[in-house]
Structures are given as structure tokens and as C-alpha cells.
Specification:
By secondary structure, the chain is of the alpha+beta class. It has a domain of 37 residues. The protein is 24% helix and 17% strand. It contains 1 helix and 2 strands; from the N terminus they run ββα. A two-stranded antiparallel ribbon has the order 1-2. Strand 1 and strand 2 form a beta hairpin. The chain is elongated, with a radius of gyration of 21 Å. The protein starts with 9 loop residues before the first strand and ends in an 8-residue tail after the last helix.
């Protein structure tokens, strides 16, 4: 991506937490930032799969299959 102000290359400085696409770019020459992109749609897992994931984790913790360790 090129800077609209000076034509130099721009580098990604911030990424979307859901899809990891660049949402904010900064010029390597004049330090100008472009407008931040807004992502309004990201596919979501169905509610049932999230429930299964949570229940599976709880069952694993209760049965001793998983061990919680402090970080």
C-alpha cells in the first residue's frame, strides 16, 4: 500500500483480532496513518459448538484429563 500524502510504502501497524488482517497502516516516510478499517462480519461458530467446547473442557477438568497450571 502506498501513502496518499507522499507516495512511500506503508506498513501494517494494527491487525484484526478475529481474522488477523491489517486494519491500520502507517507511512514509513511521513508517519501518516490511514483511516482504520472496520470489519463488521466474521463467521461465528454455531452456539451449539461453543457449548460443546465449554462442556468438554469442564468434563476434562473434572475427570483430571486437563491440569490447570498458573502462568
Amino acid at each position: 500500500m502506498l501513502c496518499r500524502a507522499c507516495g512511500a510504502d506503508m506498513i501494517a501497524t494494527e491487525y484484526c483480532s478475529s481474522c488477523n488482517e491489517a486494519v491500520l497502516w502507517k507511512c514509513t516516510s511521513c508517519e501518516k496513518e490511514n483511516d482504520k478499517s472496520v470489519h463488521t462480519y466474521h463467521p461465528r461458530r454455531p452456539e451449539s459448538s461453543r457449548t460443546v467446547s465449554v462442556v468438554g473442557t469442564l468434563v476434562g477438568l473434572a475427570s483430571g484429563l486437563y491440569v490447570m497450571a498458573p502462568i
